[in-house]
Amino acid sequence: MNPMTPTHLTLAAVAALAVAGAARRGSPARQRRYSTSRVRRSLPRMTAEERQIRRLWLSGPDNHGQAKFLAETLGVRLVLAGANLSFANLSGLDLSGLDLREADLREADLYRANLSGANLSGADLHWADLEEADLSRADLSGADLSRANLIDADLSGADLSGADLHNADLRRTNLSDANLSNTNLSRAKLDWAKLSGANLEGAYLHWAWLNEADLSKADLEEANLRWAKYTDGTTWPTGFDPVDAGAIKT
Fold it and tell me: Which of 54, 113, 117, 209 allows an S-S link to 97, with CB 3.0 to 4.6 Å?
């Protein structure tokens, strides 16, 4: 009998672990597991291997490393679009470049997670902990980041167009060259944030805190800054008058 090839071995491992995960999920005493959300119609088309690896990853944190290894070995994607990851502990994980479109990440722990280049468009990150997370070049267009903790996070070059960031904590966050056009930043804490080169065209900054923030070279065309708070240390684009825009010096 011919020995199994590496591909056969990895596929066998996928099947075995998927069955084991299903058995654990069926246990009466099982803990909460990840699942697939109702947003199935928006999921990308996946191969059978990709679906198996997705199920393996979602079966629990103990299988994250195995799922990622199998995806890399087989040269396929790890797709988590539409997945229910609310309240999940994902701190410190490498999720860079993953497809997380419309994923439910409400109140998820993503402290110091690597989400650089990830597709999080339309994702629900309400109350998520993203402190010190790497979100550089991530697609967060239309995402719900309201009340999210983004202190010291890296959002440089990220697409946040149309995102909801009201009441989000963005203190010391790097938003340089980020696209924040038509973004809701009302009551957001942007103290000491780096916004140089950011596109804030049409952004809603009503009651936002901009103390010591760097907005040099930012595009503030049609941005709503009514009652936004700033200090002498806040840096504005050359020629921009924050008082005329409705901001208040504190």
Answer: 117
Sign for the pseudo-dihedral over CA of 86, 158, 182, 153: positive
Strand, helix or coil for residue 32: coil
Cβ neighbors of 163 (< 8 A, separation 6 or more) are: 140, 141, 142, 143, 144, 145, 180, 183, 184
d(Cα 41, Cα 105) in Å, to the nearest integer? 18
24-51 tens-digit pLDDT: 444 433 334 454 444 444 567 899 999 9
- pTM of the model as a whole: 0.85
Lowest-pLDDT range of 1-5, 95-99, 138-142? 1-5
pLDDT of residue 23: 44
Residues 175 and 183 sit within 8 Å (Cβ to Cβ): no
For helices 6-25 and 64-74, what crossing angle results, to 10°?
Answer: 150
- Helix (H/G/I), strand (E/B), else coil: 1: coil
Write down how long the chain is: 250
**How does pLDDT run across 102-130, given as a tens digit for each residue?**
999 999 999 999 999 999 999 999 999 99
Closest CA to 81 of 108, 111, 51, 48: 51
Residue 98, both tokens: 């993953």
220-229 pLDDT, tens digit per residue, is 999 999 999 9
Residue with tokens 């010591």: 212
Picking from 168, 222, 212, 163, the residue whose alpha carbon sits closest to that of residue 191 is 212
Helix (H, G, I), strand (E, B) or coil at 141: coil
Direct distance between the N- and C-terminal alpha carbons of the chain, in angstroms, rounded to an integer? 80
